[in-house]
From TrEMBL:
<dbReference type="InterPro" id="IPR004045">
    <property type="entry name" value="Glutathione_S-Trfase_N"/>
</dbReference>
<feature type="domain" description="GST C-terminal">
    <location>
        <begin position="101"/>
        <end position="233"/>
    </location>
</feature>
<dbReference type="Pfam" id="PF00043">
    <property type="entry name" value="GST_C"/>
</dbReference>
<dbReference type="GO" id="GO:0005737">
    <property type="term" value="C:cytoplasm"/>
</dbReference>
<dbReference type="InterPro" id="IPR050983">
    <property type="entry name" value="GST_Omega/HSP26"/>
</dbReference>
<protein>
    <submittedName>
        <fullName>Uncharacterized protein</fullName>
    </submittedName>
</protein>
<dbReference type="InterPro" id="IPR010987">
    <property type="entry name" value="Glutathione-S-Trfase_C-like"/>
</dbReference>
<dbReference type="InterPro" id="IPR036282">
    <property type="entry name" value="Glutathione-S-Trfase_C_sf"/>
</dbReference>
<feature type="domain" description="GST N-terminal">
    <location>
        <begin position="3"/>
        <end position="92"/>
    </location>
</feature>
<dbReference type="InterPro" id="IPR004046">
    <property type="entry name" value="GST_C"/>
</dbReference>
<dbReference type="Pfam" id="PF13409">
    <property type="entry name" value="GST_N_2"/>
</dbReference>
<dbReference type="InterPro" id="IPR036249">
    <property type="entry name" value="Thioredoxin-like_sf"/>
</dbReference>
């Protein structure tokens, strides 16, 4: 039997969660060898075979031998989701999570761009406001304020674009699309790690969050104690 492709994840991490929620929703988690990477106050583990760098990382082609440089990897969550959707698209017996017409796909991608921008701003806010990063990075209260405001601005834009009926953002179907997995991971991570409710003042996102929370795919691993202890201490809220 061919070896499964390895997927390295920080199990509770913001960007890796996009992918694990998606895999659960598609029912294809068992197609990959999902490798959880541990993080402690000493830093991140480096399991054998994992390339250096942030997660998620998907191994498209395993290197010919340990340490060889001919392995092929995808290192950006959105590219990785698109690749998996290409592999397990219509006809694979799994839900189509990109849309079946150019218009539907455009709507999903449009909303994806907005939630990705909001997510990156939220991450920038956390790095500037949370005690978790205070000894590792130079922090700025002004930057934190601006980043949080931009996060909410983008979330408001997303709400305006969203399908009126819901709960899914870019379709009226019976299952979430790629954009919903991304939005859910952002809202869940914000709540679980930083105790920030990103759905406050965004009722349409709250509707998505509540519907998604009831699904099996939304079950999330425990956040390590040291992260839980420091992360929610924010200089700006
Ligand atoms: N733009 C990247 C961001 C990935 C990222 O920052 N991942 C975090 C975890 S949520 C990470 O792995 N941080 C640890 C590190 O950089 O070593 C993506 O979309 O995949």
């Amino acid at each position: 039997m061919p070896e499964k492709q390895r997927l390295w994840v920080l199990p509770w991490g913001l960007y890796p969660r996009r992918v694990t929620i998606y895999l659960e929703e598609k029912g294809i988690l068992d197609k990959l060898d999902v490798v959880p990477v541990n993080i402690t106050t000493q830093g991140m583990d480096q399991p054998p075979g994992k390339p250096a760098g942030s997660m998620p990382i998907l191994e498209v082609k395993r290197p010919s031998s340990e340490g060889a440089e001919d392995g092929v990897y995808i290192v950006q969550s959105v590219a990785l989701l698109e690749y998996l959707e290409d592999q397990y698209g219509p006809g694979s017996g799994t839900p189509d999570m990109r849309g079946s017409t150019p218009e539907e796909r455009a709507k999903v991608r449009d909303c994806m761009s907005v939630i990705c921008e909001a997510t990156d701003f939220f991450g920038f806010y956390c790095h500037n406001a949370s005690k978790l990063f205070s000894t590792m990075e130079e922090q700025s209260e002004g930057a934190a304020k601006q980043a949080l405001a931009r996060t909410h601005h983008m979330l408001s834009s997303l709400e305006k674009m969203a399908d009126a009926k819901g709960p899914w953002l870019a379709s009226s179907g019976d299952h979430p699309m790629l954009v919903d997995c991304i939005a859910m991971s952002t809202m869940q991570f914000a709540e679980a790690v930083y105790k920030v409710d990103l759905t406050e003042d965004h009722p349409r996102l709250k509707k998505l969050f509540d519907a998604f929370s009831a699904r099996e795919s939304a079950k999330m691993e425990e956040v390590p104690d040291f992260v839980q202890a420091m992360a929610p201490e924010m200089s700006v809220r």
